[in-house]
Amino acid sequence: MFESLSERLGGVFDRLTKQGALSAEDVKTALREVRVALLEADVSLPVARQFIKAVEGKATGASVTKSVTPGQQVVKIVHDELIAMLSGDGPADALKIDNPPAPILMVGLQGSGKTTTTAKLAKRLKDREGKRVLMASLDTNRPAAMEQLAILGTQIGVDTLPIVKGENAVQIAKRAKQQATFGGYDVYMLDTAGRLHIDEVLMDEVQAVRDVAQPRETLLVVDGLTGQDAVNVATEFDEKVGVSGVVLTRMDGDGRGGAALSMRAVTGKPIRFVGLGEKMDALETFEAERIAGRILG
Ligand code: GDP
């Protein structure tokens, strides 16, 4: 088990004399502990450094009120700064899906949870916003993935584009757009193929699909447990295809959520949703408060 940051800091400050304001020395000592906590939570080193710098400026000289210990004061400053960095600007979950049919492009590596997330999001749009959604799998290399989306569609009561053998991803995207237009759908979701690693073939295909579909939203699905890798994947996808938001999956696992902070700090992209399990309703909007709590332990 991890020791929580509050516990760590409690120990540090017990050894220091209590003062009316946090001294530079106190802050430095405390921030060493904060740094360890961030790294344990899988925040990348450059982001941890950047974060510590921001906090150092705010904490040095901050007055310690009678009701809190210096440790609690530092935790509060760290907590507030985490929220500020994680939440960025404005509500993250409002998807741009006016002017029907609105295309949503789902991208990510194989195994990240892309197909599952596509179905979860479709269900959410249907149940919560009353949208008519059409889902299409573009994964021509893996017939099983296409079948999987069809099965999930039946399970959640969302239509999927019929599978036609021999079509390429761009042809499927065009057919999805047609069916969504003539079928009166509000949204159509394109579940693109993933690969185990980023490669040129994959990126070329996703770019071609993007150019045809002109997506209103391009959501990148990444495994939240993969830490720094998740950030690298996001950077690449954003450079090559442009990403409007991120979905972090497997946040029901043991991870401490540091990937969220790194993701936000490095890519500047909002995290829109988090996946919290395999079930179709295990998708929640991203809440900075909850992730901050998790990182702090
Ligand atoms: P894809 O290859 O990216 O389309 O990945 P899939 O959607 O097929 O998901 C791969 C596996 O991860 C499946 O067994 C999913 O049930 C599981 N999965 C997806 N999202 C989550 C999540 O948020 N939490 C957990 N625990 N499992 C997930």
TrEMBL record:
Primary location: membrane
Sites where the protein binds GTP? 108-115, 191-195, 249-252
What's its catalytic activity? Answer: GTP + H2O = GDP + phosphate + H(+)
Compartment annotation = Cell inner membrane; Cytoplasm
Residue ranges of every copy of the SRP54-type proteins GTP-binding domain listed in the record:
270-283
Descriptive protein name? Signal recognition particle protein
The family assignment reads: Belongs to the GTP-binding SRP family. SRP54 subfamily.
UniProt keyword annotations, A-Z: Coiled coil, Cytoplasm, GTP-binding, Hydrolase, Nucleotide-binding, Ribonucleoprotein, RNA-binding, Signal recognition particle
UniProt note: domains = Composed of three domains: the N-terminal N domain, which is responsible for interactions with the ribosome, the central G domain, which binds GTP, and the C-terminal M domain, which binds the RNA and the signal sequence of the RNC.
What functional role does this protein have? Involved in targeting and insertion of nascent membrane proteins into the cytoplasmic membrane. Binds to the hydrophobic signal sequence of the ribosome-nascent chain (RNC) as it emerges from the ribosomes. The SRP-RNC complex is then targeted to the cytoplasmic membrane where it interacts with the SRP receptor FtsY. Interaction with FtsY leads to the transfer of the RNC complex to the Sec translocase for insertion into the membrane, the hydrolysis of GTP by both Ffh and FtsY, and the dissociation of the SRP-FtsY complex into the individual components.
Per the UniProt entry, the Enzyme Commission number(s) are: 3.6.5.4
Q: From what organism does this protein derive?
A: Thioclava marina
Membrane topology value:
Peripheral membrane protein
Please describe the quaternary structure of this protein. Part of the signal recognition particle protein translocation system, which is composed of SRP and FtsY. SRP is a ribonucleoprotein composed of Ffh and a 4.5S RNA molecule.
